Amino acid sequence: MPLSVQSRPVGDVIVITCRGKIIEGSESAELQQHVGVQSHDRCMVLNLCDVDFIDSSGLGLLVRLLTRCRAAGGDLKLCAVPGRVRDVLKITRLQTLFEIHAAEGDAVHAFYERGASTRAPGRLKTEILSVGRSADVQAYVRELLGHAGYGVMTVTSLSDAITLVKATRPKLLVLASDVCHASDSRAVATLKGIDATLSTIELEGDFSGHDAGEAAERLLDRVRTALGDRGAPSTAQA
Hints:
The protein has two domains: about 5-110, Transcription Regulator spoIIAA (2-Layer Sandwich), CATH 3.30.750.24; about 125-225, Response regulator (Rossmann fold). The chain contains nine helices and nine strands. The protein has helices spanning about 25-35, 55-70, 85-90, 105-110, 135-145, 160-170, 175-180, 185-195, 210-225, and strands at about 5-10, 15-20, 45-55, 75-80, 100, 130, 150-155, 170-175, 200. The chain starts with a strand and ends in an 11-residue tail after the last helix.
């Protein structure tokens, strides 16, 4: 099976999922090229759940990616490693080189744990987690609240949001209407129920269609109220 590679951000961590074979040639080049696009990111999780074979060249590539991340002050963690690949790591005595986790969420969480040797960049200042399926709306919310001085993360997946709430313990959850009314209501309830002290703001269904400046002022006012700093100056730009 040819290698396929997909990635997504989970907070400040990039999760890369591989399916197929990691071997010398186009497969290794595909992974290397894909990771190269994320060159500004130093905290990565490599999900190997669907990797059925890895050769010496592929294993060498993982070592090089690990070295690059650690040289930048970050780390590369492995998760969901299949038995065959785990056996290769043991035989080559490289299992102690990599930090290996059973599940993807555990690997992401490890970056945010207190006392961790390598933390994701936003760990100590994360106050707000914004969740919504529109990447454009999430980019707008992230820049708006970031420029207002808040530590903010955005995510488009409810399962990733659950992972981040457990890992980072934000003070405020901003939920877009497309997740509030999602078919997976159980996930939404789980998300809200993780921390009883977590404040929640739900965006209006037509939030994305509002005048950007007016929407910014309204959202900032709601955030200040929720966080108890309603007197803070606004830095929103129309």
